[in-house]
Amino acid sequence: MVTHRPANEQEAAAVIAAASGQRTPLGVTGGGTKAAAGRPVTHAATLSSKGLTGITLYEPAELVIAARAGTSLAEVERTLAANGQELSFEPPDLRPLLGTEGEPTVGGLSAANLSGPRRIMAGACRDSLIGVRAINGRGEIVKSGGRVMKNVTGLDLVKLLAGSWGTLAFLTEVTFKVLPQPERRATLVLHGLDDERAIAALSAALGSPFEVSGAAHLPAVDGRNARTLLRTEGFAFSVDYRLKSLQALLKPFGGGEVLDDVAGAALWRDVRDVAPFMRSGDAVWRISTAPSRGAGIAAALSRSLDCRLIYDWGGGLIWVSVPAEGDAGAAAIRAVVTTPGDHATLLRAPAAIRATVVVFHPIAAPLMRLSQDIKQAFDPEGIFEPGRMYDGV
Question: How many angstroms from the chain centroid is the CA of residue 182?
Fold first, then answer.
């Protein structure tokens, strides 16, 4: 298979225009770390952003950084860390979970709209993404947003392209707002709670004024007791006060123990990257719901499936591991995740399963027509990742 690796936007636009003229399906890739996600797609050629690298703008005082799409996430994070700053949404590293290699890129991160545990406080990846440059399916270079946080010019294509998985346009540059790193981080761990009690504890903490930046629950498994995690961060004196206040608030749940930044950071990396499911050969689902419904959904799934669970976002994000056989639990999960606004995505499974089940959450007919219209507007010949998210789109 031919792989195109343009060195600039003009070369990328020429490749796309030629592919559009010949109706040549293109696989869109950065570091290739998420190639195993989504529906399997057959491409005639691959368009890579690996030649589009480098930080193009960094203004620490303005809390803004821009980089070409093929720039590694690690390079951006190193640059920010040298100035005491970070991407606020805590980008996950899903390579071990998906069984892929390569280097995650900022373009791939944006296209997949990936966010970690801090999403409950700082928002999703798309909320930090304030500007993009991209090339549509006609080979036209487009720009949306800007390089300052107050920029509101034009249509907000930024939010539309974030999470489109390369099906609408080829990203060439992304711009993020960033935040200072906190002076201290600490984690409060509650032990031995069942799922319902754990989510009640997480909800109490999230509903308090004590600014929790992480709220997760790891149920008991393999002889290890259940752990319920709450993270606070900020100035050291503030973290100390909030920890004591949270312990008092959660005394009915056991009060818990405090982990320092180092031990706590390891736990949160495990939650962020879904580490408990890394080495299993099971299929993995990602369910997004309201925290108040999390325990009920999990209980219903446990009655109908042989599954393991991890909760993040206060119970609003449920990772589900099921045997990678048959439909990988698709029918049972779709029967439970039915509330409007909830989503269930099959993130990891063998290609044969992903080819036969609906991978991304099914959408109603009017929304599907709207999605098809948007695809037609951006990519009239349907050359970008055809069918990766939904059949026929």
Answer: 22
% of the chain surpassing 70 pLDDT: 98
In sequence order, the 6+-apart residues with CB closer than 8 A to the CB of 319 are 274, 277, 284, 285, 286, 287, 309, 310, 311, 312
- Taking all residues of the chain, what is their mean pLDDT, rounded to a whole number? 94
**Closest by CA position to 320, among listed 333, 336, 331:** 333
Handedness of CA 175, 177, 182, 187 (dihedral sign): negative
The CATH number of the domain where 221 resides is what? Answer: 3.30.70.260
Cα 171 to Cα 9: distance, rounded to the nearest angstrom: 10
What are the residues whose beta carbons fall under 8 Å from the beta carbon of 85, sequence distance 6 or more?
60, 63, 178, 179, 180, 181
Report the distance separating Cα 171 and Cα 199, nearest Å: 38
Residue with tokens 């269930």: 344
| Nearest alpha carbon to residue 287 among 245, 329, 252 | 329
pLDDT category of residue 148 using cuts at 50, 70 and 90: low
DSSP notation for 4-63: E--SSHHHHHHHHHHHHHHT--EEEESSSTTTTSSS----SEEEE-TT--SEEEEEGGGT
222: confidence class by pLDDT, cuts 50, 70, 90: confident
Tens of pLDDT, residue by residue over 78-93, are 999 999 999 999 999 9
Domain that holds residue 82: 2-180
Give the C-alpha distances (Å, rounded to integers) separating 262 from 157, 214, 222, 259, 279. 39, 15, 24, 8, 24
* Domain end marker among 272, 295, 313: 272
Whether residue 279 sits in one domain with residue 262: no
Task: Name the packing angle between helices 291-304 and 195-206 (round to 10°).
Answer: 170
Q: Are residues 268 and 280 located together in one domain of the fold?
A: no
* SS3 state of residue 310: strand
What does residue 302 show for φ and ψ, rounded to 5 degrees?
A: -65, -25
pLDDT at 151 over 60: no
Q: Which residue has the tokens 């009017």?
A: 366
Question: How many whole angstroms separate alpha carbon 115 and alpha carbon 219?
Answer: 22
Per the confidence metrics, is the pTM higher than 0.85?
yes
